[in-house]
Amino acid sequence: MDDVDPHFRVDCPSRQILDQIADKWSMMALFVLREPRRFNEIKRRLAGITQRVLTQTLRKLERNGMITRRVLPGPPLGVEYALTPLGQSLEGPFSVLYGWTVDNMEVIGAAQSDYDGRN
Fold first, then answer.
1. Which residues pair with 79 in a beta bridge?
2. How far apart (Å, rounded) are the C-alpha atoms in residues 84 and 60?
């Protein structure tokens, strides 16, 4: 008898989707894309991200239907990314999660220090 909730099974599509949208770069890219932006502008706003990781992140989000990619006529040629309605629908949940993170940074930092001091 299998007591595992179907949503927690290894083959449940929700696990893959959650993994793809809940990583730090995807969440930050979606937040930055509240307004359409060019690739280099996104990269400048996401301190620490490499060009390779940003490219992978944007492709993943585009594949999942959360952003669109539009080639801009030049010169200079460029690419602009924007949220789709599906991507926009994540703004509320992500804002709540981000707010919770900011509100609890100090408490979490203290808990980490306490834990590290015991080990």
1. 71
2. 14
73-113 pLDDT per residue, tens: 878 888 999 999 999 999 999 889 889 999 999 999 999 99
Answer whether residue 1 shows pLDDT above 70: no
Separation of alpha carbons 81 and 41, rounded Å: 10
Q: State the pTM of this model.
A: 0.81
- Beta strands 67-72 and 37-38 are unpaired
> How sure is the predictor about 29, in pLDDT bands with cuts at 50, 70 and 90?
very high
**3-state secondary structure (DSSP) of residue 70:** strand
CA-to-CA separations, 94 to 49, 52, 103, 109, in angstroms, rounded: 19, 24, 14, 21
Instruction: List the beta bridge partners of residue 78.
Output: 72
Only one residue has tokens 């280099």, namely 40
pLDDT score at 2:
62
Pairing of strands 67-72, 78-83: antiparallel
Q: Is the dihedral of CA 102, 24, 48, 76 positive or negative?
A: negative
Report CA-CA distances (Å) from 87 to 27, 54, 109.
10, 17, 31
